[in-house]
Amino acid sequence: MSDWYRDFANSGVGHTITKQLGLPRPAVLRRYEPGAPLLDGPAVIGSAGESRLRDTLTAVLKDAGVPVLSPVVADGGTDGERLGAVLLDATGVTGPADLAAAHDFLAPAVKRLGASGRVLVLADPPSDADSPAQVAARQALEGLVRSIAKELRNGGTANLLLVPAGAEASVPGPVRFFLSGRSAYVDGQVARLTAADVPGDQDDERPLAGKVAVVTGAARGIGASIARVMARDGAHVVAVDVPAAGQSLADVANEIGGTAFQLDITAPDAAERLIAHLHERHGGVDVVVHNAGITRDKLLVNMDAARWNSVMAVNLQAQLDITSALLDAEGVLRPGARVIAVSSQSGIAGNRGQTNYAASKAGVIGMVRAWAPAFAERGATINAVAPGFIVTEMTATMPFGTREIGSRINSLQQGGLPVDVAETIAWLAQPSAAGVNGQVVRVCGQSFLGA
Ligand SMILES: NC(=O)c1ccc[n+]([C@@H]2O[C@H](COP(=O)([O-])OP(=O)(O)OC[C@H]3O[C@@H](n4cnc5c(N)ncnc54)[C@H](O)[C@@H]3O)[C@@H](O)[C@H]2O)c1
Prior knowledge:
Blueprint: H1 4-9, H2 12-21, E1 43-49, H3 54-63, E2 68-69, E3 83-92, H4 99-111, E4 113-123, H5 132-151, E5 157-162, H6 172-179, E6 190-192, E7 212-216, H7 221-232, E8 236-241, H8 246-256, E9 259-262, H9 270-282, E10 285-290, H10 305-328, E11 333-342, H11 346-349, H12 355-377, E12 381-387, H13 393-396, H14 400-408, H15 418-429, E13 440-443
Parallel strand pairs: 1-2, 1-3, 3-4, 4-5, 5-6, 7-8, 7-10, 8-9, 10-11, 11-12, 12-13
Helix pairs in contact: 7-8, 7-15, 9-10, 10-12
Bound molecules: nicotinamide-adenine-dinucleotide (NAD).
Residues 216-217, 219-223, 241-242, 245, 264-266, 291-294, 314, 342, 344, 387, 389-390, 392, 394-395 line the site of nicotinamide-adenine-dinucleotide.
C-alpha cells in the first residue's frame, strides 16, 4: 500500500508543484534494516546545567560507530556536514535560566539536522524535582521538545527521555531505539525510564535470540508484522489467531519458522489452553504481545450491548485474563518477561463512533500502569503501544477524504506502517529495554489528536 501523495510530492514535478502551492511534502522515512548504521551522519551532544549523562551518550554513539562532533556554533561549526542526531543532556537543569543553554545549543545544531535526523533530549522527571522552579524548568523541556518535533521536516523526529536519578544504566537501549530507524514514526513523545538490571551483552542484530514470543491476532495486519519483526530479531514466535483465520495464520507461522496456535482469546478456557501450550511445547514464555483487537463502531446512542460487549471482551478483558493467568501460573512467565499491550490513539484522544473501542483501549493503558510495579518486582516489564493512523487493509477501505485527512494530521504528514508499530513493540521486548515499564509509547507521527 503505497502513499500516492508522498510519492508524488517526492517526484521531480511533484516537488516543484507542492513547493509552489505550499502543500505538505511528507518525507520518505528512514526505517531500520538489519546491518544499517544507527544514524546517517555524525551526532553532537550538548548540555544544559550540570548534566550527568554525557559519558553514557558518548559511549552509546562510540559503540555504534557514530562520529561525535563538538557542539555546533552558530557562526560556522561543522563545515556544512549534515547531522544524524542532536542530543541534549538537560539532566542538570535547575531553573528557567538553565534553559537558555538548551536554546543556544539546539538552535544552530537543529539547523544542520539531515534527513530523518533525530533530536533527543534527556532530562530528570519534573515529578522528582525539589523546587517549583526546577519542576517548571523540567516541564518546560517537554514543551520545547514537542514544539521542535512539530517544526522539523524531512522525516526528523524529536523525543524526550526522562531519567530519574539511579536509572542511568537504563539509558543506552532507549537511546539507540530513538536514534535508529526503528523509531521512524515515534515523534514528539516522552518516555520515563526506571532503574533496572539491564543486561550488558545484547546482540543488537538479534536482540530476541532464544526468546519465545506470543503474538495474538497474528494472522494479518499489524499482528503479522509484529510476528515477522520478532522472528527477524531472533524470537521463536507462537502466532495466535481465531480458527477462522487458520490458513493465513499458518502462512505467517510457516513464513517465519514459528508455531501457529488457533485460539479465540475470549473463550472461557483461552488462558488455560495458551498456558498449557506454552508450558508443554516451549517450556515457558518470554514475551507476550496482546495485539488482537476489533472495532464495532456506532455512535453511543445507537450502540447495542452486543457491540459494546464484544469489543470489551477482545480488546480488554482477554488481555486482563491472560496476563493474570500468566502471572499466577508457576514457572511459565520466564524471568525478565515482557508484556506489551496494543492500545490506540482513540484510547487517548477519544473518537466519534468509538465509545466502546476507546474505552477498551484506555482500559489497556490503565492495565499496564496498574501492573507495572508487580512486573518490576519480577524483573519483568509491561507497557502499552498506542498506534495512530496506520496504513492497513482496513484504512485502505476508508473514503478518500477521510483517509487523506486522517493520515496527514501529524507532524510527519503521513500514515505509519504496520512495521513501525512492530519495531516499537519488538524494542520493548529487548533485554536492553528493561528500564521501560508502565509506559505508553505512541506510534503516531506526533498526531495532532490527543496530547
Ligand atoms: N490499524 C490501525 O490504524 C490501528 C490503530 C490503532 C490501534 N490498532 C490496534 O492494533 C491491533 C491490530 O490492528 P489491525 O489493524 O492489524 O487489525 P486487523 O483486524 O487487521 O487484525 C486483528 C487480528 O486480530 C484477530 N482477532 C480478533 N479477535 C480475536 C480473538 N477473539 N481471538 C484471537 N484473535 C482475534 C483477527 O482475526 C485479526 O487477525 C488492534 O488491537 C487494533 O485495535 C490499529
